[in-house]
């Protein structure tokens, strides 16, 4: 006799991969060869939306508040094209702990497993852009060499950013994510499947507002029991101050790709830095574009973390 969960699985219209994405960062074909386990956790974001924070939260839940976890190594960015999939896939397959992996792909470029759990993190695009600009401005020559001078690059290389963050913002908004990738298609692809039983939407602002409550909700979604005797340690190790002080464990290659190292990668963790730089007209242009591209409900969630009933 078919179980309830099997019945849901067989009757649900699951997301289907419909395209590949290649650029200076992406090689989406890695997911075609990835062997899922039933308890895999996939952390998805556009980028600069709280990915590293979510990796830390899940590591703390899985390893019960343990210190010194090499989170960046444990939770690789799968579709980053360096190192190539021939190196990355065997390393991930050899992991014996419950795997929690990172992607920045839109959902239609990702192979979706009904048995894995997916957490998608959103953040106001203006806050994302401010973090992206800092990330790009502080990248060193090793970062450019890894992305532009290695085999497998498809499309143009990524160049140096303009220093003026407002100019950078307008280029990104007007050229649909340039020089990165489209925010709108990324958000739309996940929003469309937000009601899947194995998909959870989390917002950066809600994590800042009520981190403890959000961590408990994440644990419940992932079926991870919380050891209350370790709760204080879990919360402390997920705080911005702790992560900044121990940044080399959370940042890829210990921060070797950024001037100032890992503490540069984990920068401020704040929202609203754009308010003193963007004009009212700039912000209205962004907000109108968000509604046009996402619809009112999704645009509201992306800006505030609130989902209208």
From TrEMBL:
A single GO molecular function term of this UniProt record: transferase activity
Residue ranges annotated for the Sulfotransferase domain, each copy included: 38-292
Transmembrane segments: none
Keyword Transferase found: yes
Coiled coil (UniProt feature): none
EC number: 2.8.2.-
Enzyme class: transferase
Keyword Methyltransferase: no
Keyword line: Transferase
Protein origin, superkingdom: Bacteria
PANTHER family: SULFOTRANSFERASE SULT
Similarity-based family: Belongs to the sulfotransferase 1 family.
UniProt-recorded name of the protein: Sulfotransferase domain-containing protein
Organism: Agaribacillus aureus
Higher taxonomy: Bacteria, Pseudomonadati, Bacteroidota, Cytophagia, Cytophagales
């Amino acid at each position: 006799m078919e179980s309830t969960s099997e019945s849901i699985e067989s009757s649900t219209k699951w997301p289907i991969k419909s395209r590949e994405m290649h650029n200076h960062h992406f090689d989406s074909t890695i997911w075609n060869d990835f062997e899922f386990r039933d308890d895999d956790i996939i952390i998805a974001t556009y980028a600069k939306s709280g990915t590293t924070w979510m990796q830390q939260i899940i590591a703390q839940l899985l390893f019960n508040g343990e210190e010194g976890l090499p989170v960046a190594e444990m939770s690789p960015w799968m579709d980053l094209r360096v190192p190539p999939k021939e190196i990355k896939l065997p390393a991930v397959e050899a992991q014996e702990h419950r795997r929690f992996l990172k992607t920045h792909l839109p959902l239609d470029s990702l192979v979706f497993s009904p048995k894995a759990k997916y957490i998608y993190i959103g953040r106001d695009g203006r806050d994302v852009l401010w973090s992206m600009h800092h990330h790009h401005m502080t990248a060193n020559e090793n970062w450019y060499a890894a992305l532009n001078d290695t085999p497998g690059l498809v499309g143009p290389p990524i160049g140096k950013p303009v220093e003026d963050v407002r100019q950078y913002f307008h280029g990104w908004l007007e050229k649909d994510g340039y020089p990165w990738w489209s925010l709108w298609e990324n958000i739309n692809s996940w929003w469309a499947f937000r009601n899947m039983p194995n998909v959870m939407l989390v917002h950066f602002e809600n994590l800042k507002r009520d981190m403890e409550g959000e961590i408990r909700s994440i644990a419940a979604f992932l079926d991870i029991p919380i050891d209350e005797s370790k709760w204080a340690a879990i919360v402390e190790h997920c705080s911005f101050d702790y992560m900044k002080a121990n940044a080399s464990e959370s940042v890829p290659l210990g921060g070797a790709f950024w001037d100032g190292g890992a503490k540069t990668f984990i920068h401020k963790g704040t929202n609203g830095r754009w308010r003193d730089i963007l004009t009212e007209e700039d912000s209205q242009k962004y907000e109108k574009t968000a509604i046009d591209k996402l619809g009112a409900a999704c645009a509201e969630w992306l800006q505030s973390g609130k989902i209208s009933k």
